[in-house]
Amino acid sequence: MKRSKSFVKTLRAAPKDESAKSAQYLIRAGFVHKEMAGLYDFLPLGLRVLENIKSIVREELNKIGCEELQMTALQNPEPWKKTNRFDDQEVDIWFKTELSAGGELGLAPTHEEPITTLMRTYIESYKDLPVYAYQFQTKFRNELRAKSGILRTREFLMKDLYSFSPDEESHEQFYHQAEAAYKRIYERLGLGDCTYETFASGGIFAKFSHEFQTILDVGEDTIYFNKDKSVVLNEEVLLPEVLDELGVKKEDLKSARAAEVGNIFTLKYKYSEPLGLEYTNKDGERRPVFMGCYGIGISRVMGVIAEKYADDKGLVWPENIAPYKYYLIAIGDEAEKLAEEYEAKNSETILYDDTSARPGEKFKDAELIGLPFRLVISDKTLADNSAELTNRQTGETKLIPLSDLKF
RNA sequence: CUGGGUGUGGCGCAGUUGGUAGCGCGCAGCGUUCGGGACGCUGAGGCCGUCGGUUCAAGUCCGAUCACCCAGACCA
């Protein structure tokens, strides 16, 4: 991609209404644009990051037998009324609207009710189970306070997976597979060494839910962990009986701020019962479907990664999710000619800064945008038949022969 | 929702006791520059968040309202 072809420009100054480092850089570097509090547009670069995150999540989920679909954001209130979750007293973050023909609609904050209802059409027999269905979907939550850029917004992209199993045993088996898949996902996203599976409140149907928490100063949660971090729990379950059960003592625990990047729940029959999702077992008996749900806030994860890796010069993207691999800068006519060729053949991995800006400005932009590598070719390097490759994360620079360049 | 703060060209800001709305960046043109956010000249761009009030006169004073930020509470 050539930068001159994009409508997006980098900004020199950070907007004053953002304080989170990630939000400032994401806006300055042109990954997102703020519409209003808690509402962000994803610009071309930002969208590519989102898509890369989605691809990793999709690959790992498909590996464990999950199937992708896409449901509607506009919601029929009926199923929600059956679980008493359309009531603003029960769920206070609804955005609601009306049909012009009359009748109320909700904008989905999550999808347990609709997908449970949907599955009534397809799940009839034990032979139809299990089902593992997920989607990447825009969720709407009327948060009292949006904050920290794309970390907590009112409209956001979420991956939500729902599991439908015949019984608890079968569910547990999948639940562990999902846990393992989540760990692989965070590993691939570059958050592996700072993300912990955490005990959190699970409501009345399971003792705990499990959250995946990434240690982060601007995170909204406080987590407690023991010395080797084998036991990590959310502050919300820091209770004497829980500590007993997990076999840890409060005085041995340390705390840290963290951002929730995933949450997996055993739902049991919470939704299948009121919504009548049943199947017939081998003995001809009608049984409720045993459910679980598994979320990852895709756009939040992007914010967490941005926040985690950014340094004083700008963003630093892990290679797996970077929008492009190389930021190409050419200095001099010969170099520009060569750069044109490279970009034409590798427009998906090279972001070529072919703008008329001076080199210094391009170097600053390269650092701000934070692609894994900066590639500079100039008359100087060409005289040597080489290009200069700089690693954004380590700052390490080396000259490599042009013949060794692989995009 | 509670407490605090802020609304003035695209972005960042200044604007005194009320008296013709300014600066920097960015943008356009010309010229010089060209490996770390260059420089000179010229120029375009603003109902000062909104509504109402006081006044000969309001960015400035008064009232209301909306929005945004931070901390906290909340987070099914």
In a few lines, what is going on in this structure?
The chain is of the alpha+beta class and about 400 residues long. The chain has helices at about 20-30, 45-65, 75-80, 110-120, 170-190, 240-245, 270-275, 300-310, 335-345, 360-370, 380, and strands at about 30-35, 40, 65-70, 75, 95-100, 105, 130-140, 155-165, 195-200, 210-215, 220-225, 230-235, 255-270, 280, 285-290, 290-295, 325-330, 350, 375-380, 385-390, 395-400.
3D structure, described in words:
The chain is an alpha+beta fold and 407 residues long. It has 2 domains: 3-309, Bira Bifunctional Protein, Domain 2 (BirA Bifunctional Protein, domain 2), CATH 3.30.930; 326-404, Rossmann fold (3-Layer(aba) Sandwich), CATH 3.40.50.800. Helix content is 28%, strand content 29%. The chain is built from 11 helices and 21 strands. The protein has helices at 21-28, 44-63, 77-82, 112-120, 168-188, 240-246, 272-275, 298-309, 333-345, 359-369, 379-382, and strands at residues 32-36, 39-42, 67-68, 74-75, 95-98, 104-107, 131-140, 155-165, 195-201, 208-215, 221-225, 232-234, 254-268, 278-280, 286-288, 290-297, 326-331, 350-352, 373-378, 386-391, 397-401. The strands form 5 sheets. Strands 3, 7, 8, 9, 10, 11, 12, 13 and 16 form a 9-stranded mixed β-sheet that branches. It is elongated. The protein starts with 20 loop residues before the first helix and ends in a 6-residue tail after the last strand. It binds one RNA strand of 76 nucleotides through residues 9, 11-19, 36-37, 85, 90-93, 109-110, 141, 143-145, 147, 152, 203, 220, 329, 331-332, 357-365, 367, 376, 378, 380, 388.
